[in-house]
Amino acid sequence: MNTLFPPFDPEQPERRRKRFQSVPLRFLFPNIVTLVALCAGLTAVRLSIEGRLDLAIYAIVFAAMLDGIDGRIARLLKGTSRFGAELDSLADFVNFGCAPGLILYFWGLHELKTVGWICCLVFTIAMVLRLARFNVSLDAPDQAEWRKNFGVGVPAPAGALCALLPIYLSLIGLTPTLPLEALAAVYLVVIAVLMVSRVPTFLGKKAGLRVRRELVLPLFAGVVLFFALLFSNPFETLTALVVLYLGSIPLGYSRYRRLERQSPAHSPDPESDTAPE
Which residues contact 24 (CB under 8 A, 6 or more apart)? Predict the structure, then answer.
């Protein structure tokens, strides 16, 4: 009977097990930035439903900026984690897959009825396939240092900003003679194909980690000029950026192939003059 009813001393409280462990703030802050970006992407969908396309574009651009810094903040604070990587991938799917597709559909692709909706589905599915491929590549073995400057296909934020080009053109009044909605549907499928393609694109993650002293002031001036143009003429600036980025894809491809031919893995003699730059 003693085993069924063990003695209990009310004067001595039981030891409570520690259910939760404290998490350093440096692990939480990058995830908070990601969640703010997710809120911006969802808000963009609401604004597009309400017909405020300009504000919806601003929200997507803001989400893209936050997506560009959350990973860098995590590496700077040494707060990278698998949870943060998965959260960032899910947020990218909503911000740059679902939100742009819905914005384009509410903007004008609904005029094409089923065809417009299918094009939006193709873009969204291409985005999730690209993100899934990126998550798998995280477990890949280490690559050559020069390969880290290149990605496979158009990245998620760049794909979203490029997909919204028809809206930029309509907001600044540059509409072609052909139906803009039909051209936007074809263009959206082209961007989707570029995202899931194997075309190497320049990322520049390893470039520009250090800036020469004589280039510091010109860099500051360029950044100030860029944001001044973005705030004063946002849609003209975004249009120019998209055109420049799409034009840089062939240049990045040729650069990648040249470095690949010069890499030791493709060179018959590692000590020859064809060593990587």
Answer: 79
